[in-house]
Design brief:
Elements: H1 17-22, H2 25-28, E1 32-35, H3 38-45, E2 52-56, E3 61-65, H4 70-79, E4 85-88, H5 91-101, E5 107-111, H6 117-126, H7 129-132, E6 136-140, H8 143-148, H9 153-173, H10 183-196, E7 201-202, E8 207-210, E9 231-236, E10 238-240, E11 243-244, E12 247-252, H11 260-278, H12 285-298, E13 310-312, E14 319-323, E15 336-339, E16 342-345, E17 349-352, E18 355-360, E19 363-366
Parallel strand pairs: 1-5, 3-4, 5-6
Antiparallel strand pairs: 1-2, 2-3, 7-10, 8-9, 9-12, 10-11, 13-14, 15-18, 16-17, 18-19
Helix pairs in contact: 9-10, 11-12
The structure holds zinc ion (2 copies).
Length: about 375
């Protein structure tokens, strides 16, 4: 039975990541990158704390954090085999160090989506000498994220374990649906089952949406009692050593009281299969979305599918690529994505079915394996 045992997790290849990041500098028009996204810091260094930055230059790396993380950062960077200078201090001291370390850098890349206006102003002020020496600050986007797109064996093992933990939790609590729990009670039981088996936490706030509440794709669990005739959308995931899983199943307590929902269940299941079949390395992510939409259109429910088909999963629950209309992303081997079409009938209920999949050279392998049978 799935259980999170850190000693059993295969190692991740963290040490090579800064080197691979440097290979992207030319194209991005920078000579160095100040990494401020904490997930990206974790990816590049193995550091799991909540506050740190890494300056990756052409030749080396400077990791800065505060006193709370002095010991942890040394230990984690050392364990990951990361070759970086570690500097600990309060924020003004960190900026001072970065100031010194960036001297001579002509084009300093910043991670545009994660730099706050306040930090950008402080950096511009502190790193002012960049301008006086002909240097400049260059906005960048998605550089580390591009590396994160392809999961290594260690990362895949963690996501797979997170998926297993969720599978086991659902198997454990699904029968409870017939005992009239509230949505909130069922959500809590799922969360407890995942934690009991060692999950670091839940991937996101567990969704249990029954009856008419199911018509809202991101409903929060309420005190509504789940009764005979209800169709129940359960969307949840576990966190294993920093990595997420994401799965939705739709279950029926007895026969759905609204017969339209029976048709929706069939249609969404067919659409999800069509999406999974379309998932393959080299395929535009938008094509997977189109496959789901086409399938629902054939069933006459296209207008009830009100969100994108899926998203990447890794250190974040929602990351690249985007499986949605208009997405320019191309699926690559080793990416982990969700396929989650849904259909929602306001006032009546909703249906969504979602798996987390790893993209392979000739298709996709599901990491979430719970039955799609709707019986609790
Ligand atoms: Zn989900
Ligand atoms: Zn999802």
């Amino acid at each position: 039975m799935a259980r999170l045992d850190r000693s059993m997790l295969p190692a991740m290849d963290v040490a090579s990541r800064c080197k691979r990041l440097r290979e992207l500098f030319d194209e991005a028009g920078c000579d160095a990158l100040l990494v401020t996204s904490i997930d990206n810091v974790r990816y590049l260094t193995g550091f799991t704390g909540s506050s740190a930055m890494v300056l990756v230059t052409g030749a080396g790396a400077l990791f800065v954090s505060d006193g709370r993380y002095a010991e942890q950062s040394r230990q984690q960077l050392d364990e990951a085999g990361v070759d970086a200078e570690i500097a600990i201090g309060r924020v003004p001291e960190q900026l001072e160090l970065l100031d010194r370390a960036t001297r001579g850098i002509r084009r300093l890349g910043l991670e545009a989506p994660s730099v706050t206006w306040a930090l950008e102003r402080r950096l511009t002020e502190r790193l002012g000498q960049l301008a006086s020496t002909g240097g400049e600050i260059v906005p960048t986007e998605g550089l580390v994220e591009r590396l994160r797109l392809v999961k290594d064996a260690g990362e895949l093992a963690r996501i797979e374990l997170a998926a297993d933990l969720a599978d086991v939790a659902l198997a454990q609590v699904r029968e409870r649906l017939t005992e009239s729990p509230t949505e909130a009670e069922l959500a809590l039981e799922l969360d407890v089952e995942m934690r009991r088996r060692g999950a670091d936490g839940v991937s996101f706030e567990t969704i249990v949406a029954s009856g008419p509440n199911g018509a809202r794709p991101h409903a929060r669990p309420t005190s509504r009692r789940i009764e005979e005739g209800d169709v129940v959308v359960v969307d949840f995931g576990a966190l294993a050593d920093g990595y997420h899983s994401d799965m939705t199943r739709t279950l029926c307590v007895g026969t759905p009281s609204d017969p339209q929902l029976v048709d929706l269940l069939d249609a969404v299941l067919a659409a999800q299969r069509a999406g999974v079949r379309a998932t393959c390395a080299g395929v535009p992510a938008a094509d997977v979305d189109a496959a789901c939409r086409r399938s629902l259109e054939e069933a006459g429910f296209a207008s009830l599918f009100v969100h994108g088909t899926g998203h990447g999963v890794g250190l974040q629950i929602h990351e690249a690529p985007a499986l949605a209309p208009g997405s320019a992303d191309i699926l690559v081997e080793g990416a982990v994505v969700t396929v989650e079409p849904g259909a929602y009938l306001p006032g009546a209920g909703g249906v969504r079915i979602e798996d987390t999949l790893v993209v392979t050279a000739n298709g996709a392998r599901a990491l979430t394996k719970s039955t799609k049978d709707t019986t609790p």
